[in-house]
User: Fold this.
Amino acid sequence: MIRCRSALVVACGVALAAPAVAYAQDVSAPPTTTTSRKTDPYPFLGLSPQQSTADEEILVSVGCPVGELGEVKSMVLDRVGEFSVTNETPVIQGAVAHIDAKARPAFYAITATCGKTTITANLQILPGKTPTSSNKPTSRPPSSVSVVKPASGRQVSKIPVGAPQTGGGGTAH
Assistant:
């Protein structure tokens, strides 16, 4: 009995060690590494938030080396502040921009020039609350609507006649 147990333990140990030996690597050869060229983070354009309402401010962030940032514009922005460096590595320049008070709900393109490259981001203007709208519920229905009351003692004014129609369902032929 002891021989069977020890044979079983040895067999399990071999079964567990076999995959490790099969996938073992030769450490005598020097490892080969490939270095990929670091991706240049420039240029990029970010808006925060990307959804806003008319007459609000957003933060415009442009990833562009200092001295290469050109004009930032959009038909929905009435003012764009002065850009300043907000991050050193990679250089990100940011400014506050004001959305025109008369902007209508839609998507608008914001464009920025970095060197010879033009980059674009979309800004969504959402419907805002208008000061003239009233959210008060009406106290009574309009006079053109007549309310039908059931006859006394009944729940419905007209009693249905005939069997209910259930339709054929998916098995009808």
